[in-house]
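Working notes for the structural subgroup meeting. M.R. asked for a predicted model of this chain before we commit to crystallization trials. I am recording the input and output together here so anyone reviewing the notebook later can reproduce the run.

Input as submitted:
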Amino acid sequence: QVQLVESGGGLVQPGGSLRLSCAASGSIFSLNNWGWYRQAPGKQRELVARITRIGITTYVDSVKGRFTISRDYAKNTVYLQMNSLKPEDTAVYYCRAETTGYWGQGTQVTVSS
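Returned structure, recorded in token form:
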């Protein structure tokens, strides 16, 4: 059974940083492109960043230059490094194994002073 377990969310002041982790069980890690999504209250879920199996990364315009997606094959883990956080980054963040369609349970990120 495949599980995606996210961690690293929390409360941070504007301008601060967080690193989200998504640990994958099972044998799906290397088979997938990976995405980080977020959903703010009253808004649709949006794709924030994606990394393909060959390491190509893409970002939504609002996070370019501030967020970095990466993966560690040895740890079966995908990361989202978030710097220079803004209040508008507040949302529940989800990872997704995009080729196989699995979702994590989400982790709350709140940016507030």
